[in-house]
Amino acid sequence: MKKKLLSLFSSALLIGLLAACAGGEEDSSSSSSEKGSNNDPITLYSPETPDLTKELAAKYEELYGQKVNVHYAGTNVLVNQMMAEKGNPQADVWYGGGGILPFESAVDKGIITQYIPERAEDWEVVENGIKMKHEDGYYVGTELFVLGFAYNTELVSEEEAPKTWEDLLDPKWEGKIQFPNPAASGTATLMVLSYMMQHGEDAGWEYFQKLAEQANSIPDSGSGPTKAVAMGEAHIAVGFDFMAYEHQAKGESVDFVVPDKTPILVNPASLVEGGPNPEGGKKFMDFMLEEEAQQILANWYHIPINPEVESKTPLNIDSIRENAVDLDIDWVNENYDRIRNEWKSKIN
């Protein structure tokens, strides 16, 4: 009888252990899915136009049935927020920031991690002077931005519009130019750093002192000067291409010049380090390079990076390559804050 009871007890114990092991495997599986391999929402941080990012999110939800929550704020605000959240990240994807500079800086901050969509794996890191993706995979370009000159077509003819950065110093433009404040605008900081890399700092400060004397206003907003051109408050403005073409599409008297040599940057997307849904984040980054997302970017007058999508502006990746100026990204990262601070004392 004792042997029979012992046998029954042993059988029950064995069944219990097997069940526990099976249960442990299920728990392990569910634990691994907690980091977003299921259908959890994706959180997108972006400083780009809210209506644009909402349209991208809606298209993704339509295609994949997975919710995308968009959080909008300025680039510096978002970077500070991601820094504050490092212990408990809330975002999965960061898209946009006026080009690669804030993403380059973010690599050393530990707030983004490595992921390159399959579509971009074979891209060269730098193609014709344009850095297309991070060399270690921390970001990938989704579209192209060109820094150049917007002009009011009722006040300036196509023939007389400036074609080079030096043309902005022509006496005929005195009191008729606007450009953003480099102490506040990343767009303008890029302008200053690019010129100094080509001509040296001494020549750069001399140039920008003269340019500041040509301006009737130096607003903090990167888009402010182009808006002033559209309103007839300035003849010429420094800004990104899409700013001018957005105004043009509204029927306003604005056109755009790509200078002979000028910064041309990809606007990137990156996976946030330790985000709650990394698998969803990767899938959204894949989507950003697909035709559906690229078409939305093109409809907003951004230059698509996918060659299968046609630009809505006269500019495309092939037509602007020769205008791209090589940027020493390491020099930019080392001098970005210093040059901005020196602008305050030397120019303002």
TrEMBL record:
This is Putative 2-aminoethylphosphonate ABC transporter substrate-binding protein. GO terms for biological process: thiamine transport. Residues 1-22 form the signal peptide. Residues 26-36 have a biased composition (Low complexity). PROSITE patterns: PROKAR_LIPOPROTEIN. Residues 26-48 are annotated as: Disordered. Keywords: Signal. CDD domains: PBP2_Fe3_thiamine_like. InterPro entries: Ferric-bd. GO terms for cellular component: outer membrane-bounded periplasmic space. It comes from the Bacteria. One of its GO terms (molecular function) is thiamine binding.
